[in-house]
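ATP-binding protein: structure, please.
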Amino acid sequence: MSENVVHLHKATDPPTTETAPTVLTVVPDALPARPVPLWVRSGRVVKSAVTHESTRATVRAAARHGLYTFNGGRIVARRAWDGRTGSRYERMIRAAEAAGNLEAAEEWEERLQRFRAARHHRRMDLLHSPVDAAKGVAVGAGMSIGALVALGVVMAISTGHVGDVITPLSATVDFIALLIRIVQVVWGPALSIGPFLALLALWSVGRKQHAAPAWALPANVRNTEGEPITPSIVVKALRDLGVPALARAIKEMGDAGASMLGPIRIAGCGVEVDVTLPSGVATNEVQAKRRKLAENLTRHEHEVFITIPQAARTVRLWVADSGALDEPIGPSPLVTDDTMTADYTKGKAPWGQDLRGDAAALSLYQRHLLITGLSNQGKTVALRSLALWLSLDKSVQFLMGDLKGAGDWAMFDGLATTLIQGPTDEHVIQVTEMVEGAVTEMNRRLQAPPGTVFPPLIVLVDEAQVAFMCPAKGTGKDKRPYGGAKADSRYFMAVRKIHNQGRAVNVLMWQGTQDPTNENLPKLVREGAHTRASLALGTESQARMALGDKAVDGGAAPNLLRPGLDRGTLVVASDGISIPAGQSSITVRTHYIDDDAATAITDRAKALRDGVTTLHAIDRSAEHDPLADIAAVVGDAPRVRTKDVLARLAARNADAYGDWSFLDLKRVLDDADAGPYKSDGVMVVARDRVARALANRDGDGSASAD
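Here you go.
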């Protein structure tokens, strides 16, 4: 019999697979979840129902419409109280006193006295009105009965029946009885419906005034960016502007600042309101906080404009509808109206729209022009649109220099007398000599007999900063620089001469520049322009260079326009455009005219002319052929007036022909047997005569005619 050995110590080696005992693991069943108490489940359901968006919308709607009715009643009661008492006048008096405007306070006090006197007169009339009313009723009734009886007598005589005498009176009694029955039938329902109609009227008043808390208003009103501009919103925005004196004055006003505001007027795609500031608050304190004011009005900074009208201590706020300034304006009338023509003397160029949405048109008559701004903001398009309109006046002549050379002015080839395109120093030299030729033409006109009328000559230079910054100098004995801003600068001095005297003889200087500085746009040049316009700029100092101190101090702020986003938007200072009274500038959103549309417009302009030969370079050679030059400037036109030939010759070669008079031209043509003659009362040069003279000269070396 074997015995089992029991080991009393625990083995430290793990058992092998063969010797390991089988272990059975018993997993007990999970305990059943504890039931959620009924009060918890009920609370969750109630919470879900209460916080559901439908419930919230229902509560907001109920609160909104209930408050519309309640607050509408308050508004109507307030209006009725103001109409029956002098409380309105008393509020205005307190507000005027708080604002330090004693004249306004005296005026409102005088109005209050007149109101009280009129009210006393009406109350005294009530003492006599019952007796007067009774007499009136008695007299009216008697006259009515008499008239009816008289009508009955007439009817009785006509019909021969005596009973017809009372027929009109009987019919009137029956009609009155019918009215009484109608009133008896309608009176009951009217008493039932009347209160509901009254509540509906009060609800309508409250709804129009949004007389409910913001949380109860509809989502499209509560969450919209740019809520409607109301007096309370404007006053609150001014109160929270961070100007201590303004905030204190508003709190002290009996009407909470409403008396500061003029009427809120619809003005184009926004509203406009004049704000009379209280004593101790300067207009520039409000101007300096434009961004904060805009944000207080739930607008972007570019959607609020602050200008200073003529009235003392007054700022004019124009607040755009939210997002309205980002919408494009319509096409130019130059594009949509193929029959449009121009009148340099009396007409105005359709340039765009002002912030009110009204058409903005600019008079170009005897006004030098300067347009500036940052690069790629629409300067060339804005300048070109003015030239396109003026080209539809066939009397206007153009000398053009495009110092960018990108083809923006290529459509004027065949329309401008001179068109130079390119950015190099050589192009600057050509443009400078073109402007100097215009100076020579100006001097010739100035020396003409008094009363002589000259056609307008527009000297246009785009990217003029290239000319001012050009380092090139003359050759030979003349070492004068072409660029610069000193008295020896040829371009600078030529522009200054035109600015000084060109307006008197219709020789006008138009310039477009980029990113103005004192170096690329000298002070004397920019201040010589009658019309100054600026697109978006970087700093206020640049805005002052572009528009002048007066315009900027009056609220002009092209430096606050958004580069890229406000492309084509100009701030204009000029007496040639309609500017609201008291303002020194106006903001214009210009029409965009692309190259294809511009080409179509210039084609119409060319059709109005006999033909213009465009020079693409200034001939600076010492040798010149007068007869050939005359043939070149006459071009394809059958005949050209002698004064136009002289102007074109001066533009072609100022050194050779700048001092020419009619006698010089006549001498050359008479020698070639192609003398000028009179047509329709003016002296002209015939193309055929000049061509025949050139052919004869080239054929046998003489200028004699066949």
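Notes: Residues 203 and 675 are 89 Å apart (CA to CA).
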